Each structure stands twice: as C-alpha cells, then as structure tokens.
Amino acid sequence: MRRQSQQSRRWSDEKVEALMGKLLIAGVLLAAFIVLCGGARYLYMHGAAIPHYRMFRGSPSDLRSLDGILKDATARQGEGLIQLGILLLVATPITRVAFSIFAFVRQRDYLYVGLTLIVFTLLMYSFIGGLYNF
C-alpha cells in the first residue's frame, strides 16, 4: 500500500511529456495570438503608409529593451505587441527547461536536475544578457 502511494506521487515519464507538450503548445499559441493582435493593430494604424525602401531605419530604441517593449505593449502599440509575442515565443523553450527541473526534482533524478540547472543558467544568462546588452 505504501509503495503504491509513493509511485502515484512520482511523475511518470509519460505524464511529464504530456505536460511539457501542453506547455509548449500553450506558449506558442499565446505568442502567436499576441503577434497576430500586434500585427493587426500595426496594420490598422500604419497600413496605408508608403514604405521608404531607400532609407534603412532599425527598430526604435524603446523596442530594444524589455522595459520599452512592456511599456509599448501595455500602451497597445502594434510594434510593442509584436515584440512581446516574439519574446514569449523565445521564452517558451526556456520555460520548458524550467519545468524540466521541477519534473526531475519530483522524479528524484538528481543527475538530470543538476544538468538541467546548468542548461537553464546558460539560457537565462544569454536571454537576459541579450535583453540588457551586458
């Protein structure tokens, strides 16, 4: 009886894979929805504008930092929403790695907890460093 209750508390590989699949699908769908809303908003506001292809203009400075992206997205500016959706799309596999750490702890597989923590640390360093230009 006790052995059965311990096994029911532990997560099976199939359960972890199913949860990870749902997490990835939800992240991609949420990111796609936000990008779609941002694209629709951008086209509504700027769809009739004539593009000037002779002069290159990069992204505005407020869309190059997390703070600026969040501010523009909360102001419902199309470009800010598109950038936020792209950030969420990039953050989805990082969230998967974070979930893997939790799942390996639940499964008491400490070798993979350590390895996944190393991967997560590297991902977060590159993600945050890219946002804040360290």
The percent range for strand residues is under 5%
Total strands: the figure is 0
Shape: elongated
Order of helix and strand elements from N to C terminus: HHHHH
Uncertain stretches of 5 or more adjacent residues: none
Tell me the domain tally: 1
Summed over residues and divided by their number, the pLDDT gives a mean of 84
Task: Lay out the secondary structure.
Layout: H1 2-9, H2 13-46, H3 66-74, H4 78-107, H5 110-132
Keywords:
single chain; 134 residues; mainly alpha; 5 helices; elongated
Please explain how this structure is put together:
With 134 residues, the chain is mainly α. The protein has one domain (14-45, 60-132). 78% of the residues lie in helices and 0% in strands. It contains five helices and no strands. The protein has helices at 2-9, 13-46, 66-74, 78-107, 110-132. Helix 3 (66-74) packs across helix 4 and helix 4 (78-107) packs antiparallel against helix 5. The longest helix is centred in the first third of the chain and has 34 residues, at 13-46. The protein is elongated, with a radius of gyration of 20 Å. It starts with a helix and ends with a helix. The relative contact order is 0.13. The model has no long low-confidence stretch (mean pLDDT 84).
In short:
The chain has about 130 residues and is mostly helical. It has helices at about 1-10, 15-45, 65-75, 80-105, 110-130.
